Amino acid sequence: MDNYRFILSGGGTGGHIYPAIAIADELKLRHPDAAFLFVGAKDRMEMEKVPKAGYKIKGLWISGIQRKLTLKNLIFPFKLISSLISAGKIVTKFKPHVVIGTGGFASGPMLKMASRKGIPCVLQEQNSYAGITNKLLAKHVAKICVAYDEMERFFPVNKIVKTGNPVRADLIDPLQHTNAAYEFFGLDPEGITLLVLGGSLGARRINQLIEKELDFFSKLGIQLIWQCGMGYYEEYKKFHANDVKVHDFLNKMDLAYSAADIIISRAGASSVSELCIVGKPVIFIPSPNVAEDHQSKNARSLVLKQAALMVEEKDLAGKFENVFSDLNKSEDSKKLLSKNIKALAQPDATKNIVDEIEHLLKI
Predict the structure, then answer these.
(1) Engineered SS bond to 254: which of 170, 180, 322, 334, CB 3.0-4.6 Å?
(2) Sheet holding 192-197, edge to edge
(3) What pTM was computed for the model?
(4) Same structural domain for residues 207 and 269?
(5) Domain with 298 in it
(6) Does residue 298 share a domain with residue 158?
(7) What is the torsion angle, in degrees rounded to the nearest 10, for the CA atoms of residue 176, residue 177, residue 179 and residue 182?
(8) Residue 241 bridge partners (DSSP)
(9) What distance in Å separates the CA atoms of residue 151 and residue 232, rounded to the nearest whole number?
(10) Can you give the CATH number for the domain in which 116 is found?
(11) Inter-residue contact 157 to 163 (CB < 8 Å)
């Protein structure tokens, strides 16, 4: 039998969407006749990104709970009930053999209703600190694929499988695209290129830093690929120039990584996994506004292995220029960081996750 049906649910940020797409791509490679359906949250970025990857998606009327009292919180129970009903109808109509959740608002109702109907479910938790949706779903699923040790703090130990985080297949060897990358972005192949990533939605503090340091980069002869985020593009597009390429979102991440000599990035779990595969020198600027400060922990674990550098947001004014200058002028430092971060890569993570899914298919 090869006409399996899979539902994949997760979204809100690229950190949930792209692992789901990577898993679907690997399943499709193994089962070309399988049917796929993504389920996301209406009005979130997955509604655009998933169809671009070639998959159908349905949206649920769901969102997260705000940390302070707002009107959105008052209507959350109605959204949840609506999403549970819609998710139940989707399961009944599509009849999936397995449902896979990668985190985010929509995966909660979807996996809850699938498990209630006896459909085997798999969770994929990217972070070292589990998200609330996945913690609530843990008792309802068959397997939980994780990327970090000690996840039994959050999940039943008998369900945990350490697989690593999935990354897009086109990132496995980004160097093969170097010439095409320079041409795509309109960059000088002889120049030094800095790639700036604030996450799929953007990072205000990183954007403020880059704006402040544009003259500094220019004096060093640095050219930039700057992903400022969809919410910040109108504010920062005025800086687009011959040596500064401002983008709201980078759909050709393989080319962006290929062109980069140095990368500045947040330290979300999916970003860290991708950057290990890419193997370029990285300066992490972790977000301080996440649960358990897990981005700092992610970054620090690489710093201790001499696999990356880190500057905390509170230290940017006093430290950033020195850290960047020292790295930029030291070929030995660049080579060491590249070598050590590449050694931490888990290129088979997606295959490992799909192996676990196939076990549930009784192949």
Answers:
(1) 170
(2) 244-247, 222-227, 192-197, 262-265, 282-284, 309-310
(3) 0.80
(4) yes
(5) 170-342
(6) no
(7) -140
(8) 244
(9) 35
(10) 3.40.50.2000
(11) no
- The two structure tokens encoding residue 225: 């690929």
Angstrom distances, CA of residue 340 to CA of 149, 263, 280, 308, 343: 20, 15, 10, 8, 5
pLDDT tens digit at each of 363 positions of the chain: 578 999 999 877 777 888 999 999 999 999 999 999 999 888 788 888 899 999 999 988 776 555 555 666 656 666 777 788 889 999 999 999 999 999 877 888 999 999 999 999 999 998 888 878 889 899 999 999 998 888 999 999 999 999 999 887 777 665 566 788 999 999 999 999 999 998 767 799 999 999 999 999 999 999 999 999 988 999 999 999 999 999 998 988 889 999 999 999 999 888 999 999 999 999 999 999 876 788 998 899 899 999 999 999 999 999 999 999 999 999 999 999 999 999 999 889 999 999 999 999 975
CA-based nearest residue to 121, from 141, 107, 145? 141
| Whether the Cβ atoms of residue 221 and residue 192 lie closer than 8 Å to each other | yes
Residue type (1 letter), 42: K
Interatomic CA distance for residues 189 and 169, integer angstroms: 25
Question: Domain check: are 176 and 316 in the same one?
Answer: yes
Hey, what are 361's tokens? 């298919």
DSSP labels for 153-199?
GTS-GGGEEE------GGGSSGGGGHHHHHHHHT--TTSEEEEEE--
20 and 80 together in one domain? yes
Indicate if 116 and 157 belong to the same structural domain.
yes
Residue showing tokens 């459909």: 119
Same domain, 142 and 268: no
Whether residues 124 and 198 share a domain: the answer is no
CA terminus-to-terminus distance, the chain: 9
Q: Write 348-351 long-range contacts (CB < 8 A, 24+).
A: 348/164, 349/147, 349/163, 349/164, 349/165, 349/166, 349/167, 349/273, 350/22, 350/23, 350/25, 350/26, 350/166, 350/167, 350/169, 351/26
Tokens of 136: 């609530």
Work out how many domains the chain is built from and give that number: 2
